[in-house]
Amino acid sequence: MLTAGVVLFHDNDLPHTARRTADIFTEFGWELFVQPPYTPDLLPSDFHVLLHLKKFLSYSKRFGNDEELKTSVTR
Question: Which InterPro entries would you find in this protein's record (predicted)?
């Protein structure tokens, strides 16, 4: 599937889900996947996880390659 065409991953913001936009995607022959409006595997009680992730990402980290990224995330 991934090598046969375009896979479009987007959020559920209105411009991405509007009828006209969906029609254009269909004209292009792109397959769309419906996503939940929120992450169902995170409970509101898991807010501390998101807080740490936000802090981690807010330092404008840049990685030269995939290995640097993996090392930083798994520390």
Answer: RNaseH_sf, Transposase-MT_Hybrid
